[in-house]
Amino acid sequence: MTELLATDGLELAYGQTPACRDITFHVDDGEIVTLIGANGAGKSTTLRAIAGALLPRAGTIRFRGQDITRLPSYERTRLGIALVPEGRRVFPFLTARENLELGAFKYRNDKAKVRALIDKVFAMFPRLSERASQNAGTLSGGEQQMLALGRAMMSEPYLLCLDEPSLGLAPMIVQDIFRTIRSINTAGTSVLLVEQNARYALATASRGYVLQTGSIIASGPCATLKEDERVRHAYLGRSAVEGVSERVSR
Amino acid sequence: MLTVLLQQGINGIVVGSLYVLVALGLTLIYGVLVQINFAHADIVTLGAFAAYFFTHAFGGSYLASIGIALVVGGALGWLINAAIFAPLRDRGSELLPLIATIGVSIMLQNAMLAWFGPIPYAFDTPYSEHVIRIGSTFFTVQSVLIIIVSTTTIGLLYAFMKFTFLGKALRAVSQDRETAGLMGINPNYLIMLTFVIASALAGMGGALLGPVLVMTPFAGTSVIVKAFAIVIIGGFGNVEGTIIAGLLVGLIESYTTQFLDPGLIDIVVFALLLLMLAVRPTGLIAEKREENV
Fold this sequence. Notes:
The complex is a heterodimer of chains A (250) and B (293). Chain A has 250 residues and is of the alpha/beta class.
C-alpha cells in the first residue's frame, strides 16, 4: 500500500508548555487509523498539527510525498486533508447549507460542482437537507456532527481527520456516525480517527496507536491492540469515567 | 406638528445613513479581528479631503469624487493593514495592533494638519443648494443623493455578505477564525479584504459628510465618536444591529435638535449608550443571536 501521511519525530507544544514528543506514525492509502489514549494524552494536539492548526517545534509531516510541516492549514485543505474538529465547530450563525458551501471553499469558482457535492452530503445525511436553511447553531448535537462531517467531505479529501466524533452524543447517534465513517472509507477516503471511546475506535479502525502523556506507547493492528494489557487498562479506566459523566449529565 | 415630525425624520435618516456607512466599517473590522480601529476616523477625514480636492482643485464632478473617496479609502485601508497591522498580528500580540491604530490615527491627523492647515475648508456641492419641496417638507438634492448612495451601498454590502462565497467566508472568519482556516480559507486575505471594504466605506462616508462637516484634519473624530456609540448599541460585530442603531442615532439627533436643544445631542446619545451597556450589553438584536447558539 502506498503511504498517504507520515510523521517523523513530531514535537508539539502550546507556547512553552510541551504537549507531545517523538510522535512517529503513518496512514496508508485506504486505511482507517486510530489514535487512542486518555484525556490529555495528546491525541487532539497531534491531529491539530496534521491539519496545520498548530505548527510543530520539531519533526516533519509528509503528505502524498510532499513535506507539509510548515504549510498553513488553508493550504493543507487544498492538498486534500480535512479535519472535523473536536466539539464540531460548525459556524453557528451560518445556515447548514452555507456551512457545507464553505467546506467546498477550494471549489468556489465551480458552482455546479459545489451543488453536486451538497447533494451528495444530503444523500448521506437526509436530516441535513431538512435543516438546510436553519442556522447551524440551532441544530442538535448529532445534526451538528453530521454537518461537520459533511462539511469536511465537501473538499473531497484524501485524508479525513476526525477529532472525538462521539463526544457528547447519544449512543444511537454515535453508532450512526461510525457507520457513516466506515462507508466514507469504503468509498475511498482514508481516515485518521482520534477517539476517547477506544471500544468504538478499535472496532472501526484497522490499525491503531496508543498515546500516553504525549508519547506513543504502543501500536499495531487493532485486533492485537485489543488484547494489549495497557490498552485494556485504558479501556476500563475510560468506561468508569464514562459511567460517571453519563450519570452526572442526566 | 406632523410636518415637523416628518421633516426631522427625513433629516435624521439622512444623517443616520451616513453614520451607518462609517459604523459598518468599524463593526466589520471588529467582527473579524475583535479589534477596535481608531484610525477609522481619519480615513473618513481623508475621504472628505480627497473629494474636496478632486472637486475644488481639479474641477471634477461631485458624483465622481464620491467614487474617488471610495478608492482612496480602500487603498489606505489596504496600505495601513499591510504595512502596520498585519506584521504586528503575525507576532501574535492582541494589544500591539490596538495601540498601533491609535498611533496611526495621530500620525494621519498631524500629517493632514501639516498639509491642509487648521482652518476649516468650505466644501460646496452643487446639490446642497437645490431644494425639493414635497407638500410642506423640504429636502436638498444632496440629502436625496446621500440616501440613494448609502442605501445602495448598504444593500450591495448585505448582498455580498449573504450571497457570495467570499462574503460567507468573511462571516465564517468572524465566527471562528481557526475553523475557517480548516476550510481552506486564508484568514489573512479576508482580514485584508475587510480592511479594504471598511475603509472604502469610510472614505465614501467622508465624501458625503464633507459638505456638512466642519472640514478640518480632525473632522472624522466627531463622527467616529458617534460611530463607536452606534457599534456598541447595535452589538459589536453585528451588521444588522449597526444599521438599525445608526438610523436610530440619526433620528435621535434630529428630534433632539428640534424638541430639546442641539447641545444636548451627545448627552442623549451617550445616555442611550450607557443604558444599553447596563440593560443589554450584547446590543439591540442580540436576543435573536442568543437563540441561535
